[in-house]
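User: structure tokens for this one?
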Amino acid sequence: MKGSRLDAVLDGVRAVLLDVDDTIVDTREAMVAAGTLAAAAIWPNRADDHRAMAQRYYDDPERWFPRYASGEVAFDAMRAGRLAEVAVAFGLDVPPGAHRSFEDAYAPAFRSAQRLFPDVPELLGAAERHGLPVALLTNSALAPTQVKLEVLELAERFDVVVTTDTLGFGKPDPRVYVEACRLMAVDPARVVCVGDSLQWDVLGAEAAGLRGVWLDRAGRGTTEDVASVRRLDELAAALDRRFGPPVADG
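Assistant:
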């Protein structure tokens, strides 16, 4: 049933819209690694708590990142809010200059911690074999997205990269999916959106008229009637089944 659901979603597809964070790039580990060093720069006397602080910053229990993605708060305000929440959770004050210290420690560590999931090249290869354009749609800002793509030598791979800077808001606002499709010059009904967020990358995409495939790396499962894969190479194999071998030139 799972395979048939996936094959049905891919029937007649003409383009792929990929999420970035925790879909093609291991952003969780990069943020925790960088956040651990940033926490040490701000609160050096709490060495035993630095990784837990970074994990809490990533978990974002007050949901500052979704507020940023909706356009409610600016990027810097989002980061400041998350840092303040961490301080409260660990019974600390945010010292003067903390935000500058955070950025100075976080930025180079985040850059060096970028890792591409090993199943990404196979999906990109399958899309290329079958002539399917691939675009990126992320709720991150343009600057950190460019850092990820440059470090991973993917900056030239994608002609269309839609971030929250593009329209001033992100997923699940239907307009961002439609804008990505417009930039690819493909009808939304022929575009499949793939990502690790069931809400943003599948349900939001479907509400905007696209198709959706959930990347459920942890195998959590869902009661929603959606197509899902555990790895992107499963999607690559499904594309090969759907389109068959590429036609050789000549």
